Structures
1.
Amino acid sequence: MIYDVIVVGSGIAGLMSAIEAKKNGAKVAIVTKNNPLKSNSFMASGGINAVLNTNQADIFSHVQDTIKGSKGLSDTKTVEYMCENARRIIYKLKSYGVEFDSENDDTLMQRPFGGGSIKRTCFVGDKTGSAIISALLKEARHLGIEFLTNNFALRIITHQNQVSALAVLRKSDSNVVLYPTKAIILAGGGYAGIYKGHTTNSPDCTGDTIALALKAGLRVVDMEFVQFHPTGFEKSGYLVSEAARGEGGYLVNSDGERFVDELATRDVVAVEIYKQIKNKQRVFIDLRHLSSEQIEQRLPSLYKSAHIQAGIDIKTELLPIKPVAHYTMGGIESNMVDTSIVGLFVCGENSANLIHGANRLGGNSLLEGAVFGELAGVKASMMAKKTDLLPIDYNQVIPDIRMIDRLFEGESSKNFNALRTSLGNVMFDKVGIIRNYQSLYEALDYVKYLSTQAGQLFVIDKSKSNNVEVTAILELRNALIVAESVILSAIKREESRGSHQREDFKDSDKKFNKHISIRLIDGKLLKEEYKINSLFYNLLEKLRNLIINK
């Protein structure tokens, strides 16, 4: 099949971009490697930020809070665009059927979130993400957007630095398939899943689209900034939404002492909890002072999950928690949604559009995905209207075909699940909430060792029909590429800033008021420092306009 626009990913950014492109007349398909409901957006609980009035001072406060939270590494123009469009996006989501919690007069309710100077977080109980995704999926299907499920994106095919096709692994028969297209939108989410066993993310959140971009010659930026959510279940890592603290929950240690401002930014809260745990204290979230009605109406999912997973009644008992890898600020280099490949756009968590910098504010991730997903859809559909399909160089996909064939040819003594678990453990232990020179180099050596082991993996089941081992091996290889880029960036940033905390460089340093980028050259990761080159993007925009208007 041929499509005007192909979207990779079905979270809030991917669905918003697909809907917008379709409404603008494009033939659109969404590629997902699993069920479309299986996204981090669906799991996002607490809410989505927006100033709902037109008061410029309040909008400016949202801009300022976001920039302050980024620790000097956000782009003001991009942040302003997000905050100024937030109100309109909320009401667009409402028109799609998202039933935000409201007062009796239909005024949308808002709760406080960490790092926010005023209440500006809209919500649907503590299941905001699932409510939004359900509504967007319904809208996408109503519009006739096609879902190409169980397809693993392998390579972006280009002609003279412009998109011409997407190569995927069709999981049903393990064949490599090409989809000709005029534009591709990467919206595949983040990479916190590389911290397997220590994350709120699904294990398959391995940064596949980020690895895809690296293989296409793009740079990735700010990979060292991995946000650890302060509150996951102590045993399972299941997310305790920031809504729990937004509704007034306390954080207490084994002695019953509150030790941190619960609504400080996530980097601050996570570090303070980590210190308590290192000092042999357990940490709990205390909701016992909230009314039963408030817990049942505002935190229903947490109330049920605590019962089922931990056997705890949060109305009367403390809930043990720990920090877990949750969100990744790094991603594919972009100027809002544009990349250096014509016809390739990025949005959502896999994009480094310089909104979050070194630390994301709670409630800004769903907003960023919605705002820039919409923009990516508009730009991709404009590109599709004015451009023709380009020639496809099949030589570009031959390495992928050979690679998949090789997975079925050999015999393996390695266990990919054990390798993934080992990767998760070393990333948490050595590249976790607090890092240092020694731990980072130990992690780098171990990841390189795991990469050699992953290169010796073959499938045990030789059936090509829905072979889950093939996908697992590909995910592991992508996770290792992404993990190495995180470590290299963390080594290079010799300071502590936001979510990146170095024991050996405890203060922030003005000379690091810049971004660290990674690119793949001859199969090896190369690290280098850079500042966004606006002149380059201005020239790129002129090139796009020439193509669109020719």
2.
Amino acid sequence: MSMTYDAIIIGGGHNGLVCAFYLARAGLKVRVVERRDVVGGAAVTEEFHPGFRNSVASYTVSLLQPRVIADMKLADHGYRVIERPISNFLPQPDGGYLKLGGGLERTQAEFRKFSAHDAETLPAYYDALEGVAEVLRSLALKSPPNVGEGLRTLLAGAAQGWGMARLGLEAKRDVLDLFTKSARSFLDSWFESEAVKAAFGFDAVVGNYASPDTPGSAYVLLHHVFGEVNGKKGAWGHCIGGMGTITQIMAKVCRDLGVEISLEAPVAKVLVDGDKAVGVRLESGEEIAAKRVIANVGPKLLYGRMLDESHQPEDFRRRMRGFKAGGGTFRMNVALSELPRFTCLPEEGEHHRSGIILAPTLDYMDRAFLDAKQFGWSKAPIVEMLIPSTVDDSLAPPGQHVASLFCQQFAPELPDGRNWDDEEGAAADTIIDTVEAHAPGFRASILGRQVLSPKGLFDKFGLVGGDIMHGHMSLDQLWSARPVLGHGAYRGPVKGLYMCGAGTHPGGGVTGAPGHNCAAEVLADRGRHARFNTGV
């Protein structure tokens, strides 16, 4: 080992880059080591068929923190997001459809096709969700109180709990419901139409290997309304050039600050000397010395493969073995000769620029999960289709299109000893069949496809069990308990070891929050907290 870095970051995903930015801005010498030949982790844009490019894994923007966008000056370097005209479009079994979004009045008009009651209830529902989301948004860029630190824990807990304490009784009841109830029981208390409940319930199973009947699934629904696009809360959009544009810009900003980024540099081990992390050993055998090691990989990968168990306390080791990860996600990207023509709405329109949800009821979503548990994947999977080439002509040849198919429920591990390498083609065909049933001619329009099973997502991106969240977003794995109580403030069980990925608070999605918060803790430990907060 030659020079010693102030920090080495394992993984060049967006949170790793955000963390590197804040550390380098504070004057630290930082190196990022990335396993793949491209920076960005799961937020990358790649050509998957000649002439067709798309966001390979992460595919849509909303949750990226405004402070991160501003601090990194992403817009100055070409970051631009096109908001969806409506958020989601759900074809229904009877030949009808429901559009969600485009403003309260438009959504109420859509709901009236299914239920006058639900249309009238909608404003109160939005207010309830927003009231809770606003409090939780305020916690996103704060480190959770680290249980076990005595008075400091109490003070931090009291400060962060104040926002929740100020809520009225009704809002506190909403908080309890959202954190403990299933999505179905929560939505049943508000709405009567199955189509309306499906429109909201879909968010509860995104990246979540669970049924909408699973207790706690209501929180996952809430997690997806935290975001904003161009200042509009709850909106979703497409980043021009795909998600890789975001991380390529982040990498440039980091390099301009002196951050070294090494590609094709997979880490084999975190090196520990005594009780302190002192660097990493790459798979090539090269050792890199650093005063602190920051992991932007999931907890399962970090503690299961990269940090010897001898450096992990026995109780921590047992709890990390029990840490739940596995998202049930199957990703496809398809090159299309033309736009799909949906039986319920065949002409080109705003629905092609929205999230197209093929999951008409909560019962459909529940069956998909039960199928996956029994057979390995859904006979009728939950499919979200986005067609970003409708707003971004850089992704496909003129007149042709690319579509992201983000699909649930697919078992992280197949039953009966079967292997995803052997089964992914058949599963992909089932997904195509599902779309074809709603848009006849879709299969014939496919010019090429890229298929990523849960195993494929692990092989390509290191997502254990295909888990885009780096771990279940369940009550026992949130806030101070993410990934485990006593290590919720981005610090590992070894001195000098930190975590900055989605397996820490506030969890999954392209937010940048874990990277931001981890950097704050590193600098606090170094005695540079004031400099970080003033943006110097």
